[in-house]
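Quick start: what a row looks like.
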Amino acid sequence: MSGLIKSVRVLSRNSSYLRAVAIRPLTVIANKHKNYDQPPVTSSSVFAPLSQMRFYSPEVIRTKPTEEEIKQRVLKVCASYDKVTADKLTLDSHFINDLGLDSLDHVEVIMAMEDEFGFEIPDGDAEKLLKPADIVRYVADREDIYE
């Protein structure tokens, strides 16, 4: 019994011999059952039905908005703000003088614009955006729609 254990221990230490002995019979059996009527399977024939595709994130493939689309989106965001009355809202309406918003309301409108267009507007620039037309111009410059 100890001789058998010693032999198994020696074989397990010499793993390359064990691999060769175990793999050779499997290879012989596979070659015996091989169908020679069919063409050999190559890596190119296995992957031939697959086509190469390149996937991009939406940031890369999105088209630039037109100025009219930007105007509509800005007016939609302004109209959805609860303190803005839709009948007074135009592109040239001043947020504070014409629409009666205070500075906190102005900040909330700017934050809503950031959410709508997906980028942050720095505080220095936000202070200059006093009309929807100013926001349209800022977003158009940021999106680089002017050629």
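That is the whole record. The chain has eight helices and no strands. The two ends are 89 Å apart (CA to CA).
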